Amino acid sequence: MLPCLANVAQVEDRVQGNVTYGKETALAVLPLYHIFAFTANLLYFFHAGARNILVANPRPISNLQRAIENYPVSWIPGVNTLFNAILNEEWFSDYPPPHLKGSIAGGTSLHAAVAERWQHVTGSPVIEGYGLTESSPVLTLNPFKGSRPGSIGQPVLGTEIRLLDLMGEEVAPGEPGELAARGPQVMRGYWQRPDETAKTLNDGWLLTGDVAVWEADGFLRVVDRKKDLILVSGFNVYPNEVEDCIAKLDEVNEVAVIGIPDSKSGELVKAFVVLREGATITADRIREHCRQHLTGYKVPKLVEIRSELPKSNVGKVLRRILRDEEQQKTPVERQTGGGEND
Question: Is 336 left (phi over 0), alpha (psi -120 to 50) or beta?
Answer without folding.
Answer: alpha
